[in-house]
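User: tokens in, sequence out, please.
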């Protein structure tokens, strides 16, 4: 079977909650549908949720992240920080984060022992335990508060020694990051507003164990249900796994080969339509994916969407030509491949946008899709401006077009 670009774009309306008729009721639904929200840039979580909620409020995002804790921030795919459904934390941890944490530990130990040979694995383990003990005593706390309780966290490492930009950095930040990657602490409320990247931490409950191979199969299943069809390269890029693990996961879920413009791809068995899809197979002990809701009458009408930088839909595939003209890539992605704020029309990127210092939402059309599309984008820009109110944000990874729009 062959999937055209048009068919693949049509699936985004439902599966990525982009059309108004398919928008979600709560932030948890958004995180479930997209298999996690990129959280490296703190503002992305709120803006990705906003674009997909029927009645978006910052309060609902805060509730899910900080009050109910039904969505949590954790390092997983490609060492990237994601906001994921809390119930799926074991799937992300044992499929991906565990391996990432092991690499991070080895890298940190190399850096520490280069600074001081006595700062070995035992020293690091003691520092981690001291930080954990302090968190248990203090409750949710910021890095400075924890370091005040644990003097060893105030030790420093010299970066770029001998260079004009030589600097010293405290060990504490690295220790807390490693504990977070290990799943032993979690990020709580930000130390600042909704765009702040500095967080408080709290001791995390132990995760129920999963067999890594089964956890990888579950993550592949969920990715295909939301992002499929996709190629082996797409899955490898998104997860950061080895090719062997990707192929193992695809085989475990019985992925079916299909033809795409860029070559061979995969879908879940029976998943050939444009609507939502939920596979029955899953790892024991993990929750079912949410059942598709009945859309409103206007669910399949043309739609526009303004998605933030690093949005999961923009970043979901390695091969992007089916929803992004390659000519426009240099304007919308930085040199490291980080996507900036994008304008979408019916499952295709047609431009980029930005928030100016005065709160104005400005956008530029890169692909002309007619008056209806332009009017719909203008309406979405006005809706976002109203929702932001006094709020402002600047992408952590500004792209060439974003820079131009905010000059």
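Assistant: Sequence out:
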């Amino acid at each position: 079977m062959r999937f055209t670009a048009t068919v693949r774009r049509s699936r985004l309306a439902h599966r990525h909650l982009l059309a108004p008729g398919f928008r979600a009721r709560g932030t948890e639904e958004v995180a479930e549908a997209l298999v996690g929200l990129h959280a490296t840039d703190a503002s992305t979580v709120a803006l990705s949720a906003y674009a997909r909620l029927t009645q978006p409020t910052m309060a609902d995002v805060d509730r899910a992240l900080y009050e109910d804790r039904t969505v949590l921030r954790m390092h997983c795919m490609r060492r990237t920080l994601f906001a994921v459904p809390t119930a799926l934390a074991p799937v992300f941890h044992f499929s991906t984060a565990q391996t990432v944490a092991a690499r991070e530990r080895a890298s940190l130990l190399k850096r520490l022992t280069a600074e001081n040979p006595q700062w070995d694995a035992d020293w690091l383990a003691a520092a981690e335990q001291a930080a954990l003990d302090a968190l248990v005593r203090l409750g949710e706390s910021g890095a400075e508060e924890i370091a005040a309780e644990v003097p060893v966290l105030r030790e420093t490492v010299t970066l770029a020694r001998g260079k004009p930009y030589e600097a010293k950095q405290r060990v504490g930040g690295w220790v807390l990051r490693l504990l977070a990657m290990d799943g032993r602490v979690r990020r709580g409320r930000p130390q600042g507003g909704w765009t702040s990247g500095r967080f408080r931490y709290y001791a995390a409950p132990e995760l129920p164990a999963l067999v890594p191979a089964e956890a990888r199969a579950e993550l592949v299943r969920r990715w295909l249900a939301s992002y499929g069809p996709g190629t082996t390269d797409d899955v490898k890029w998104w997860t950061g796994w080895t090719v062997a693990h990707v192929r193992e996961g695809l085989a475990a879920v019985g992925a079916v080969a299909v033809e795409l413009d860029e070559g061979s791809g995969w879908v879940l068995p029976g998943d050939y339509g444009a609507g939502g899809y939920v596979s029955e197979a899953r790892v024991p002990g993990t929750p079912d994916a949410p059942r598709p809701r009945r859309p409103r009458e206007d669910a399949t009408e043309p739609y526009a969407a303004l998605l933030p930088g690093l949005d999961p839909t923009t970043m979901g595939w390695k091969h992007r030509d089916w929803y992004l003209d390659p000519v426009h890539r240099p304007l919308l992605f930085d040199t490291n491949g980080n996507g900036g704020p994008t304008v979408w029309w019916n499952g295709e990127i047609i431009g980029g946008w930005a928030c100016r210092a005065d709160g104005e939402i400005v956008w530029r059309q890169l692909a002309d899709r007619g008056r209806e599309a332009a009017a719909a984008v203008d309406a979405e820009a006005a809706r976002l401006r109203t929702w932001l109110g006094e709020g402002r944000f600047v992408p952590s990874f500004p792209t060439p077009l974003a820079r131009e729009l905010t000059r």
